[in-house]
Design goal:
The chain is 22% helix and 42% strand. It is an alpha+beta fold.
Length: 154
Amino acid sequence: MAITTQAQHLTDYIGKETGLSRWFTITQEQIDTFADATHDHQFIHIDPVKAKQTPFGSTIAHGFLSLSLLSAVAYDAGINIENTLMGLNYGFDKIRFLQPVNVNSKIRGHMLLVNVFEKRPGQFLLSWDVTIEIDSSDKPALTAQWLTMTIINP
């Protein structure tokens, strides 16, 4: 469950893991839907017969599919600031796709708050180190330095 705190207490969480998300199972239906949405129909994602012949042994999720789950991870493992008007993706400083996510694998995210900067009154830029782990794997699917913006009601 995400932490809820007041804006003035955000700096108390710098350098700390704020949470761990639930597990998400990556299904072939989800991969196919993502392929349709992004127009990325490479066989390694959507053709189980051909993908079985690769070193991966099955279809794999798009790296961007795993990355897109960061929003869901943040709901579970991030920080909710009281009186939030909205939260926005602000960008990334670094993304590394380290390990493919095979179909039917389970992944979850770890979030560590790196920095907080109040850009304008009531606008907080948060910098996160996020790791997406794969169940039963020592190597993570991805790591990212993610920037989010939270705007609160004055």
